[in-house]
Amino acid sequence: MKFGTGFSIAGQFRRRTDHRPRAARDRSLALNRWATLYIVAAAVWLSAGQLNAQGPASTSQAKAEPLAPLQQESSQTPADDPPVQAEAPARETDCNEKPLPEKDPFDRGFGEVEVPGRVIDAQGKPVAKAQIFWKNWGVRVPVRKALSDEDGHFVISTFRQNPAIGANRRLDPDEINKNRLLKTSIIATAPGYGFGTVIDGDGITIQLVPDDPIVGRVLNESGQPVRGAKVRVRDVLWPRRDNDPIVQLENRQGDGSVVPVPAGEGLDPWLSAIRQAANMNDYFVARQYVVGLIQANFLGNRPAVYAPLVPPVVTDDEGHFELRGVGRERVAELYIDGVPDHASVLVLVANRLLESPIVVAAQSESVKKLISNPGRDLTVFGRQLELTLPAGRTIQGVVTDRGTGLPLSGLRVVGPAVTRIEYPGYDRFFTTTDHEGRYRIESFPLTQQAFFKVEAGQDRDLEPIDPEELPYFSREITLNVASGTGVIQADVPLSRGIWITGKVVDDISGEGLMDATVEYHVFKDNPHLKKELEQNSPPEFETGVRTKPDGSFRLRALPGRGIVTANGFRYLEGIGADAIKGLKNDEYRETLYQPGGFSPYIRSTTIEVNIDDETATYECELRLVKGKSRVVTVIDPSGEPLTDLEASGLNHQVQNPISKIKGDMLDITNLYPGERREVVARSVSRKLMGMALVTDENDDPITLKLQPWASVSGRLVDDAGEPRSRGLRIQLDDGKLPIHTLNGLQYDKQEFLIDAEGKFEIIGMVPGATYRLSVIEGGVLWLGNATNIFRLKPDEVRQLGDVKVMKRE
Fold first, then answer.
1. Which tens digits make up the pLDDT trace of 445-483?
2. Phi, psi (5° rounding) for residue 395?
3. Which of 102, 574, 614, 800 sits 20 to 30 Å CA-CA off 284?
């Protein structure tokens, strides 16, 4: 059986017979790592020089009424607001809400500036006494800053992030217009409306939207009403429009929609796509038709973000609830939970009337048979709903030192993501041990195999007493969450290891490298590992630990034989791996303990460590090596320089996403000895594309002449000639070429959507390159080839006509 890309089936990503170094070939096993690093880099870049607010309310001469910031856990409402339903009693451990830190991490000591704005309704009329909130980039809980006056005006104060902007003054419209992040950070609420965000135009104008209450009833599996179920918002989404400042920011980051949004009013395009969705892969395409408050989805959409904007409510004696503030023609992702012996459920509610609920399957039945955790189906309701809470259990325990039995505080206990739209440790089913080492996770669904992880020393919001200074290992436990009543007790003893300390340095300069990532792995035959396994205490080792500004790091390790790896941006990979016994070729897959998707050949440098039992701290140094660099000059078909460029393959053969280039020259870095790298450049405005083969053999100038790009279209049909599309996508096998087409979903092998008539199109292909098309189901199951190998001429638009999945030989 051959599998496709786009889902976590270890080891089944693209493997090619080519002349690339192992580092380049194994990179595809960890492609998502680069996508994550790109988004994180975008976050850091956007934060520098941008405004952020968590400061005191404005005391300017404006007529707006200032408010002191509300603490995140506060459930109070202003006297002018209508009361919401009383909330359920606080859970013993609320795993989703934490108090804000005393000092705002974005206060860089540059002072403050004032930002004026106005709140209006859908007809453009001013809204008085609207609450003004500030929510920074990513997952930040909004802080209430002010009330609008009778004319809808307000002023808030913010911390300066750019010292070039003068302090203690009011920003003018031009300064505000240049700051896209600022326009996505201010939100307003008012009774009778859905919350509003900044609209396009000069300065800050927040438009509230009309609201229809979401009303529902919650029953148990016996059909009886459930009292006290908490209804809280995970996310709110609304139709994507190009003039929305949040959409503009996402597009600037490269996180925006990669598929065109179909025409239609309100939620019509989204609902149409949801009704046709065969599985969650189709849902993720439809997700690009809408936008929400929280950028960078990999951070998770913590429910605490929405709590101040759409306060949670609880069901009454008859199981009824009414949730206000979401807004008409929006989608609310709702958690309904907090009831003993009942599971937490995640549902989607389109805030309009629907004839019947829509169920989106996690995967097709054929794919579910192939993967261990396909996730749970999602149900989309209209704004009037009735649902059943299935049975669930509460899981609690105590985390202790295995040797002494003493409790360990400040450790995160993280459960699995139940659906494919959630993120472990951000949405639900996670908590932190208290000062007696206790943890508690409520409303977990029944399942035969649930993985919970105790993360040693990972929680930054609650300073741990012991774990941060002592080398405890993280540990994963597997629970059978069976039907029943009461709690499931799961105590977790943790073992101690030994600290590895060291530095990551540049091989030439010897200078420490900041933000290199280091990790530790142990060999299976290590006797200390065997002892831990015999005690049923499998250790979890740290990955992705970042070095400090001087290049220093600290890792937990076992005595005995293991390896330490370091990875740095624009450094060669695979250095040192072949010299270590047990790592050559693919031996590491068998010799290392639980390597998963790890490969020493996609890490910059690997060293062996053999730590004595009596060692208190083991010290080491990892030296990273840079490869050769070349420069490619790009010209158009007439030989003139091109400056409107994008390129991929600059730093390694497999690159995702494609990079924007300033000027007409491409800097090709990290060429390995003997490497033959294919680098693709394109000019979108002129529809030009080309590929250059770059090696480390000499320093001669390289010129790449672009040509009009090629395209392909066709229709996928079955043996009877009927169109095929449901749950299927076209996959492009392009040899070694990095990401380059215009309209593909950017996985390692690009995938292309098929419409209801079976039609597909691929835009932006390299003239002269070798291609073949195949068909993939659910992002996982490879069904077969749809074409033989073909090449395209410059400016060719090839019509393939009807194609079928070829019979396997």
1. 999 889 999 988 643 343 434 445 778 999 999 999 999
2. -115, 130
3. 800
